[in-house]
Each structure stands twice: as C-alpha cells, then as structure tokens.
What does this fold into?
Amino acid sequence: MASETKTTTLRIRPELRARINELAAAEGISPHSFMLGAIEQCAQSAEHRQRMHAEAEQRMRRIAQTGDVLDWAEMKEYLESRAEGREATPPQSRKLSSD
It folds into this structure.
C-alpha cells in the first residue's frame, strides 16, 4: 500500500529559496527533497527534545517524592571506570539535603 501524501504550500523568502536551491544542487538532490529532509530532521529533533523534557520531569517528580539522589562525582567515577573496563561498585543513593 502506497503512503498517501498531501500538498502543502510554503511561502519562502527569496534569499532562503536561493540557499535551498544551492545546497540541494550541491547535495545532488531536488530542492523539494532537501526541504522534506530538513522538515524531517526538525521534527525528529523536536520529538527527541520533548522526550528528554518528559523524562527530566519524571525524574524530578521521583526526586521530589523520594528525596533519593546520586552524587555526580561518584557516578562520574563509576561510569569512567566501567567505560575503561574496570570493575566498579555503583554509587549508593542518598537523601537530597536542603543545605
């Protein structure tokens, strides 16, 4: 089954249109393909950013509920050790202090 496409009109400033035409030609693709690729990249970037924000909000809610956090210096040391192939003990969580 072929995917259905719809036509959308974009009003593009002449300077931007010239840049798109030049860049598309250098890439060996049509201006249309260049614009579709740019829109796809922008959509993927926005989706990724939204997922990151949602995860950060979820983590902040968990910290607010439990008060459990990890010390960054300890976590960094642990991650570096593991990346170098050394055995390492994961850092223990601790309660967030208010000072």
The chain has two domains: 13-66, 67-99. The helical segments are 14-27, 31-66, 72-83. The beta strands are 68-69, 94-95.
